[in-house]
Amino acid sequence: MKKVLATAISSILLMSGCSEPSQTAAPTQAQQASSVDAQIINPLFTRSALQYQTPNFDQIKDEHFLPAFEKGIAEQMAEIKAIADNKAAPTFENTIVAMEKSGELLTRAQRVFYNLVGTDSNPQRRAIQKEMAPKLAVHGDNISLNKDLFKRIETIYQQRNSLDLTAEEVRLIDVYYKQFIRAGARLNETQQQRIREINKELSNLGTQFSQNIMALIKSNVVLVKDKAQLAGLSDTQLAHLAKAATEAGHDGQYLIKITNTTRQPILAALENRDLREKIWRASAERALSGENSNRDVVPSIANLRSERAGLLGYDSYAHFGLESQMAKEPQAVLDMLTSMVPSLLDNVENESAAIQAKIDASGSNFKLEPWDWFYYAEQVRKEKYNLDENEVKEYFEFNRVLEDGVFFTMNRLYGISFKPRPDLPVYHANVKAYELLDEDGTSLAIFYADYFAREGKRGGAWKSAFVKQSGLDNQRPVIVNVMNIQKAPEGKKTLISYSEATTIFHEMGHGIHGMLSQVKYPTLSGTSTSRDYVEFPSTFEEDWAMHPEVIANYAKHYQTGEAIPKALLDKVIASRSFNQGFDTFEYIAAALVDMEWHSLPSSAGKQDIVEFEKQALKKHNVDVSFIPPRYKSAYFAHAMGGYAAGYYAYMWSEILAADAFAYVQTQGGLDRKIGQKYRENILEVGNTRDLMESYKAFRGQAPTTDALLKRRGINVSTK
Question: Of the listed 507, 535, 596, 684, which one is catalytic?
Answer without folding.
Answer: 507
